[in-house]
Design goal:
Layout: H1 14-19, E1 34-40, E2 46-51, E3 62-66, E4 79-80, E5 83-84, E6 95-96, E7 102-108, H2 111-120, E8 123-127, E9 142-143, E10 152-154, H3 157-162, E11 166-174, E12 177-178, E13 186-192, E14 195-200, H4 205-215, E15 223-226, H5 242-254, E16 258-261, H6 264-270, E17 273-274, E18 277-285, E19 291-302, E20 324-333, H7 347-365, H8 369-375, H9 393-404, E21 416-418, E22 421-433, E23 440-445, E24 451-455, H10 464-476, E25 483-486, H11 503-520, E26 526-530, H12 532-535, E27 544-556, E28 561-572, H13 579-598, E29 630-634, H14 652-655, H15 657-669, H16 680-683
Parallel strand pairs: 1-16, 14-15, 19-20, 24-25, 28-29
Antiparallel strand pairs: 1-7, 2-6, 2-8, 3-7, 4-5, 9-20, 10-20, 11-18, 12-17, 13-14, 13-16, 18-19, 21-22, 22-27, 23-24, 23-26, 27-28
InterPro entries: Ald_Oxase/Xan_DH_a/b, Ald_Oxase/Xan_DH_a/b_sf, Ald_Oxase/xanthine_DH-like, AldOxase/xan_DH_MoCoBD1, AldOxase/xan_DH_MoCoBD2, AldOxase/xan_DH_Mopterin-bd_sf
Protein name: Xanthine dehydrogenase family protein molybdopterin-binding subunit
Domain Aldehyde oxidase/xanthine dehydrogenase a/b hammerhead: 19-129
Amino acid sequence: MKNAVGVAQPRVEGRAKVTGAARYAADVPVPGLAFGVVVLSTVSRGRVLDVDVSAVQDMAGVLGVIDHRNAPRLDPAAGGFFGPDGQLQLLQDEVIPFAGRPVALVVAETLEQARTAAEALPVTYDEEPHDTAFSADHPASRPAVTIFDEPVDVGDVEAELAASSVVVEERYRTPEEHCSAMEPHSATAWWEGERLEAIDSDQAPFSIARTLATLFSLSPDLVHVRTEHVGGGFGSKGLCGPQLILAAMAALLFGRPVRVTLTRPQVFLATAMRPATDQLVRIGADADGRLRAIHHEAAFEISPLVEYLEGCTELTKTLYAARAIRTRLSAVPLDILPPYSMRGPGAAPGSFALESAMDEVAERLGVDPLELRLRNEPVTGPVSGLPFSSRNLVACLREGARRFGWDTRDHRPRRRREGALLTGTGLAATSFSAGAFPSSATITAEPDGTFTVAIGATDLGTGARTALTAIAADALAVGTERIRLRISDSGLGPAWGAGGSRGTTSWGWAIIEAAEKLRAQGCRGTVTADTTGSLGGLPARERHSFSAVFAEVTVDPMTGEVRVRRLLGMFAVGRVVNPLMARSQVVGGMIGGLSMALHEEGLRDPVSGRHVNADFAGYHIAAHADVPDIEADFVPDHEPGIPMGVKGAGEIGNVGTAAAIANAVWHATGVRQRSLPIRLDRVLE
């Protein structure tokens, strides 16, 4: 029998999606459904003085209004991935910590009636002075509370910089960026006695069900969350979102199912985004290009409600050998929505800074940027000293350069013209952490010869169903037609969410262990496997995916317009489960990186502190016309110690692309772009 893993196969749910048969959270019919529409704060800091319910309670179809005076009390001990999470404590008091905080929910018989009443609901505030102005030298700046990205000091950075032939010292800045998934956040909740049922758009039904149980002081077995299809998340659906908490509140108060779907502006204003960053990078090198020191410190904005870490310095500890390396992270508390993980968190803005600075080192030394990276390839972890479990960055760089035609490049800037256009090329190398988290899977051998595989995974549209079907088929030594996969249900047991580029690795491991147990008992009955113990046996090694991205751009100096003409990415992501879908993931990531480089920028009014472009008219993302033909492929790679040798392909495509494009813009124009996005006014000559 041929293996299913490693073979390009179309999505198992593809037909359902293109024919409209697949139902997303806002599509599922529920009897007796009412609709809730959220009312958001219009001030950046203050208190609610009054919610004039009498103004709307007699409007057509209105069932009632929930605000801080009548909302069910939530358990303040409920927390999120980054600790106690004030964004969960909705409608619990009159305090307004940021513009966009939910202050009321209007519930009515129809969506139109609820929306009309919500728009008419008068809310008055006692507005207080706010601070939303981010800067690295903000007086409230403090060392970040680190979870994964501890500060490091290896060697004597100052001495090595002093001894260097060339020193680059520059600041690099990235703005607030929003996840911008196609599907808005939506949830439907209802109570069956003491049991809370929900259909939600999220990335982690099991953990979100546990959070919901804590919020409403319920036993975990009394909360059931289903997430059948998700139209993208990019991190914004990794949390227990406001739509689900408010829908559960309304269902409890009104005694019927309630659906809450955020509008597009509400998605921008009330769900997590990437924080703005301000990064200082200092790199010292000898005349031959050998790095002596790397100093990377990054400041990022947070909300006082939540501790969060934007680990911008992760790559600095991994990518290049240097005698001395120092990293620091600082957090700046502001009156803003709590940030959260988004599309390669930390690594994406961190890569822009580090790889831009590396390009500047190459420029000042007169060295090929590719050669500079090859000369500083480490043998072991530059900070940890641990061996790499696998490291194929050099293969990505060399094969990418060959395919891109890098060897014909004149490394001097502003040398290529096509009429009025300036043309340039650039590259960036990058890594993204790899590994697995505990998950459980259950497999049942059915009487008809098929196997039901149940695991609490989530398919964000990345093809998890198809990948896990192939993994299960190979593990059971049967064809994929004999696998029935059940996912996206908190009742299927503990499972890592779709995030951190660890979904397939974590879920696949659990399925393989369950299959081994089932085969050991003659493929009869039902078995459950939990990988908690297995993960503890992994040796301490540096585990990462790697990639190299090459970009070609044209720049019109008269208008400032930048166009990406070519993108090429080579990736080392372990064994590729499904080449068709994996390529789709990394290409999508590169498009996200292009969008980050040229378009995305959350803007706030300096007076009100509120977002001024909370929609797709004002917040620009890469559209079809912005995206060139993209070439992406994989170098042979295998991750030892993990079943099948897989890593993750979800986020690494995002990580290096913005830096490659920025470096190409410098090559075209001779002017460095150290702030994203690379807007027309920043390029215009």
